[in-house]
Structure formats: structure tokens, C-alpha cells
Amino acid sequence: MQLATVWNQHIQHATVRPLTHDDDDLIYRFQSAHPDYYEHFQDHPVTRREAIQDLDDVPVNATADQKAYLGVFEDDQLVLIVDLIIDYPLPSLVWLGLWMPEKTLSADRCAELYQSLVTTLRAADAVQLQLSVFMGDRNAPAFWADQGLTKVQTTTVVRGDRTANVTIYQDKFAR
To answer: Which residue of 45, 85, 124, 160 is most buried, as measured by CB atoms within 10 A?
Structure first.
């Protein structure tokens, strides 16, 4: 199933498409405009190499064909990057590795986009979505709680020689 195609059937006033290495400059510009995100786990602004590495990175025990790295566009402008790993860490579960909205996107619009993603994932027979939030993030916990996600665990992640505390949230899709 082409996730972007299905999402386009459930989203209004936007278009979703896979991001590829043809979009490297766009991805880098977009991610570099979010320095606060990177301050949680690294001591420098995102580099071009780090930004575009997201296109290919998959977690341990996942394969490249499980990854969906998607851009949401409004009026031909990238407004949201979404990095999903399908059937990870277990079948019918989805790991949301990155949800990076444009700073000008309202919380209500972000919520609409998330709900359209949930509808899409349910159509793909997913039963649950999980994600992690850095402990120092002041906005994400309230946003995800407003979307109905619940905290399931606090843990520490290691990136290079740095560590960060994160909270894992989940959304069990109602059937």
C-alpha cells in the first residue's frame, strides 16, 4: 500500500507525497528552521548530512521498505515532515519517528493533520501508533495528550555520546 496515496484520500487542503533525495535541499532548509528540536539531543544545529540521513535511517530490526518519509504540502509549501516505520516494533504498530510541523501551522491544523493520518493508518490495518517526546519539550506533551495519546514509559535514548530522557506515548486506535 502506498501510504501517501491513501493519506491523500483522507486529508483536506493539503497534498502528501514521499520525500526523496531529490528533496534534500528542501528537507535541510525545513529541518534547519527547527533548532529547538535538535537542542534536545545534540550540541549543534542540524547539518545537511544529518537532515537528509533521516531519509534512509531505520531502527534496528526494521527494514527500508517499512519506512515512509512523507511531506505534507499546502499551496506547494512543505508544512509537515512525517517519518513513520510501519509494523514496528511489532506487526500492526506504527512508530512515528518524526512529526515536524512548520512553525506557523496552528495547533488546530496540526490536530487535523494528525487525525487524517490516524484515519489513514487505520485504513492500513494499523491498531496503534507510538512516538517519543523529549523531556525538555514544553509543547509536544500537551499536543499529544490533546490528540488522545497516553504516556506508557519513560526511558533514556543515546545518540552518539549524548543521552536524553524521553517519554513514550501511544495512541490505541478505536475500532
So the answer is: 85
**CA triplet 46, 50, 54: central angle to 5 degrees?**
120
Those residues of the chain that have pLDDT short of 70 are 1, 38-42, 159-160, 162, 175
How far, in Å, CA of 131 to CA of 111, rounded?
A: 15
Say how far apart CA 42 and CA 71 lie, in whole Å.
Answer: 24
3-state secondary structure the chain: CCHHHHHHHHCCCCEEEECCHHHHHHHHHHHHCCHHHHCCCCCCCCCHHHHHHCCCCCCCCCCHHHEEEEEEEECCEEEEEEEEEECCCCCCEEEEEEEEECCCCCHHHHHHHHHHHHHHHHHCCCCEEEEEEECCCCCHHHHHHHCCCEEEEEEEEEECCEEEEEEEEEEECCC
* Contact indicator for 21, 55 with CB cutoff of 8 Å: yes
Candidates 62, 74, 67, 63; CA nearest to 19 is 67
